[in-house]
Amino acid sequence: MNKYLHKFIKSKTSKRIVSGITAVVMMFGALPVNDLSEGIGKINFSLLSASAADDDTPPEDYKFKHDEYNNVTIENSDFAEYSRYCQIYKEYHSNDNITLTVMNSSSSLSASNFAGLGSQEYPFGGSLSIAANTDITLNLDAPLFNYAYDTVTIENNGNPLKLSRCYYRGTDVSKTTPLIASNVLSGSGTKSTWNINVLRPSVGSENGVDGGAYLKGYGGLIGTMKNGASLMVNVTMNADGDDTNAIALDGTADIGLLCGCMEESSTLIAQFTTNRGTDNHGIGSITTSSGNAGGLVGTMKSGSSLTYTGDQYQASALDIKTDNGYAGGIVGYNEGGTITTNLPTGTTTYTIAQHIEGTYGSGAVYGYYKPATDIEFDISGYSVTSDCQVNGNGKIGGLFGVLENDYNMTIKGAVATTEAD
């Protein structure tokens, strides 16, 4: 008996069975239990087991097979399923040129359990476009990109991509994820500009959406800009009908409106506008359970660069808070990053009026700051109002919670200068 069992374990058949089971777990690990049977019914097990056991190439009759130029056309209703297969055939789909199209006269993409494009092993390096004369809103419950290069192009017939965040009944949303991309990596070629229109979902309760057709909270626009990545993003997030509330940002790692973490030598040029909320304060509280929290960026590493065009869109007295890290009105933890702000015409200062709370350090501008060179720090561009409260268990400062400085530093706009030893 043991001899036959050993022979079966070593056989290709057993490997295919194990691979098929593994693929199903990957496909449906995030599915609510009541959706599992329905989802399993859509899987072609012969495709999964045979191909997963041998290599990353799907069989000839695979549903999402691309052509010799990596072009693949996806029906909008199949996009979520396609994203889950991308986590199985990771290398095969990593350079797909995706065209989303509409079938059956439906322009609403209801994408429950969306898996995100790209993986850590094989980041997405292709393109995403909307078919001509097609109006599609991507109603996603997860980031559009899991791992993507900064050369990925997004096209919507000359218009911004319509992107929404909603959650489907049974989904765990105790902590949310980034809206656009979890990770952006440096790729070879021309760096891209992503134009995004964030709006209310085009699907509601009848499609299984929890809470109806209202934009839900997310974990900032981008999770991490990896080393050397460079990207431009233009984002509009306006009210639509009775969907006017400010959007809270919440996560489990570094968090900020624009980006959670900017690693060494990364560059982000971001424009953001919103007319949601009271007096265009469309951003609610910014919080994380573990990581650094900032009004714009959670963490900036040495050589990183942020250029922000926009205003202060978070109302007074709202939280910028972390349960385990540094918190700052602009950046939670800044270790040698640089920031340039381009404010709207007629606005001369970036107002900081939030309740800022960290566990290691909290500051109205930066929770932690370590310049990378001699610097003249100009505080005249910031207005810290009486509504601003800086609290926490760690170091607390009016400008910086913690300042570590190995260089000459002049604070412009105040009578204060520190010099290196």
Give me a quick take on this structure.
The protein is mainly β.
Round the Cα radius of gyration to an integer and report it.
23 Å
Q: β content, as a range?
A: 25-35%
Strand segment tally: 34
Classify the secondary structure makeup into a structural class.
Answer: mainly beta
Strand order of the largest sheet: 3-5-8-10-12-15-19-23
Discrete helix count: 5
What's the average pLDDT? 85
Task: Tell me the overall shape.
Answer: globular
Separation, N- and C-terminal Cα atoms: 77 Å
Let me know the largest β-sheet: 8 strands, parallel
Low-pLDDT regions: 1-19, 24-54, 415-419
Residues in helix, %: 10-25%
Structure report:
By secondary structure, the protein is mainly β. The protein contains five helices and 34 strands. The protein has helices at residues 2-10, 12-28, 33-40, 45-54, 79-86, and strands at 71-75, 97-101, 108-111, 127-130, 137-140, 145-149, 153-155, 161-165, 181-185, 193-198, 222-225, 230-237, 247-251, 259-262, 267-274, 283-288, 293-294, 297-300, 305-309, 319-322, 326-328, 331-334, 338-342, 350-352, 355-358, 361-363, 366-369, 375-378, 382-384, 389-392, 395-397, 400-403, 409-412, 416-418. The strands form seven sheets. Strands 3-5-8-10-12-15-19-23 form an eight-stranded parallel β-sheet, with helices on one face. Strands 6-9-11-14-18-22-27-32 form an eight-stranded parallel β-sheet, with no helix packed on it. Strands 13-16-20-25-30 form a five-stranded parallel β-sheet, with no helix packed on it. β1, α5 and β2 form a beta-alpha-beta unit. α2 (12-28) crosses α4. The protein is globular and about 65 Å long.
